[in-house]
């Protein structure tokens, strides 16, 4: 019987290897050769999975997004309003080394997306999904009487989403992976402002 | 008499050419050859100004930062508190095509900075300066009675700065340079929250 190869699993192994290489050498140093070596693949064996580094980077971005969404589903289960919004943001913010490494995948993806409409569209779809989620939590928060401010929730959602994006930049460019950037405090301060006057 | 060459001016010509090329071809397509061609320099004539594309990108980043600061000085002159804070943020936000093009320089610089400690330090120094400016405006706004919220101004400054960074990503990845991203409205909503309950 032929050996059964789980192609999805192998793709994820390659994504993990890509992360380690990008964290160590940067996106430009992350050649297909280096990634193959790190993942224990023969040189050229990546091609059936990812014909180009570009396809690998797009897959890695989608994987970061999907993985974050899985974590979000777990931490927001049974929560609503401000409590759910806090849990959502804590999961998106790069507050531990795993998520700082994710930021280091996301920033190169953004850079590529500037001149690649397909990548830019993937980014925008992902962000539309998150903006919608944030807005849903705000609607619940209003219903629960926690937010009464005279602001448009879709606008506030866009503001908060941009802050979450900017936090990825701050984390990716911090002097060390464990640097405390005060992002958790920034989130709390924003939630305080949101609920002020209620 | 020998022809007097203004080297600073020629450097700025090269930065302008770099912008046009990056906007057209992306950072990877912006070879020293393409930039020289665009600026009307002979191939190789760039070397005395910028030995590498990397030095050119760093110069361009500093130039964007300095130019933004010049605009900030003009628009905040004679203003204080919330009024000055609004003027500052409007100038940093990518609200017109010139500043969207600046965002397209800044995002590739950030990507390079992830694995280049010197570039990352330049970014952090610039951001420290802006965080300090924002905090100064908030202090004035409290003194004027416009802000009374029970939040730490240095934390709120960090939050707002991250939103301004995230807005660069949103603008650089928007489908068109004239897309309305609602960034002005997001700023106003944040200023409303900041003053709520006062």
From TrEMBL, chains A, B:
Residues 31-50 bind DNA. It holds the Pfam family TetR_C_6. One of its GO terms (molecular function) is DNA-binding transcription factor activity. InterPro entries: BetI_C, Homeodomain-like_sf, HTH-type_TetR-like_transc_reg, HTH_TetR, Tet_transcr_reg_TetR-rel_C_sf. The keyword Repressor applies. Keywords: DNA-binding, Repressor, Transcription, Transcription regulation. Residues 8-68 form the HTH tetR-type domain. PROSITE patterns: HTH_TETR_2 (PS50977). This is TetR/AcrR family transcriptional regulator. The lineage of its organism: Bacteria, Bacillati, Actinomycetota, Actinomycetes, Micrococcales.
């Amino acid at each position: 019987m032929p050996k059964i190869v789980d192609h999805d699993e192998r793709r994820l192994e390659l994504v993990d290897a890509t992360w380690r290489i990008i964290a160590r050498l940067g996106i430009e140093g992350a050649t297909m050769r280096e990634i193959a070596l790190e993942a224990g693949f023969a040189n050229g064996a990546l091609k059936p999975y990812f014909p180009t580094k570009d396809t690998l980077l797009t897959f890695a971005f989608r994987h970061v997004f999907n993985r974050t969404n899985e974590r979000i589903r777990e931490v927001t289960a049974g929560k609503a309003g401000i409590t759910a919004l806090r849990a959502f943001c804590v999961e998106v913010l790069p507050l531990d080394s795993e998520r700082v490494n994710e930021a280091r995948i996301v920033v190169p993806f953004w850079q590529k997306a500037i001149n690649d409409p397909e990548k830019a569209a993937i980014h925008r779809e992902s962000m539309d999904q998150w903006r919608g989620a944030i807005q849903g939590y705000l609607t619940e928060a209003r219903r629960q009487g926690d937010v009464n401010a005279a602001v448009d929730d879709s606008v506030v959602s866009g503001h908060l989403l941009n802050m979450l994006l900017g936090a990825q930049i701050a984390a990716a460019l911090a002097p060390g992976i464990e640097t405390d950037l005060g992002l958790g405090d920034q989130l709390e301060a924003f939630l305080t402002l949101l609920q002020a006057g209620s």
